[in-house]
Design brief:
174 residues; mainly alpha
Length: 174
């Protein structure tokens, strides 16, 4: 039985999404007005924002990103022991992974191109757009994976279950 106050565990996509959704709220709470200050005239100007460091994956060239996706696809293919009979379902799943990677790259590049000039409302909307795009991509991936999963042997399903249960931070470790 799980304790009532057990630490929740999240998959990497869930944790990433939660972090993306929490950041705007955290940023808003960090600039709360001092007691008695009006919304029009803050007592002191806010400190200059620290420069935003790009995520290491976004510093990669498009070719490096594509190579990373292909390595992930190849690693999963091997780990899951995909058979010749399962190859059509695998190919459909791999295509969705490639398409999702391209969609996210485009979404993050669009945000990055205008980040320096975004106001707070546009910034929050940008996070919302990313969350929606990510959710749609994950739904397509889940649907595609279900078709593949249905063709797997019990041993392959067990392996898949273990691979997809990994904790955040364990990504890519074998």
């Amino acid at each position: 039985m799980r304790p009532i106050f057990a630490k929740p565990t999240f998959t990497r996509p869930t944790a990433t999404l939660l972090a993306a959704l929490a950041l705007p709220a955290f940023m808003l709470s960090a600039v709360a007005l001092p007691t008695g200050a009006s919304a029009q005239a803050p007592a002191t100007p806010p400190p200059a924002a620290a420069p935003i460091k790009p995520h290491r994956d976004r510093m990669l060239t498009p070719e490096q990103r594509a190579q990373r996706v292909e390595q992930h696809i190849a690693r999963l293919h091997t780990q899951l022991g995909i058979t010749a009979a399962q190859q059509p379902q695998w190919d459909a799943f791999a295509t969705v992974m490639r398409d999702n990677a391209a969609n996210m790259t485009k979404t993050f590049d669009k945000r990055g191109a205008s980040l320096a000039t975004m106001n707070a409302a546009a910034n929050m909307q940008s996070y919302a757009d990313i969350a929606v795009a990510h959710a749609q991509d994950i739904q397509r991936l889940a649907t595609s994976f279900q078709s593949l999963y249905d063709t797997m042997s019990d041993s392959q399903k067990h392996t898949a279950d273990l691979l997809f249960r990994r904790q955040p931070g364990a990504r890519g470790k074998s």
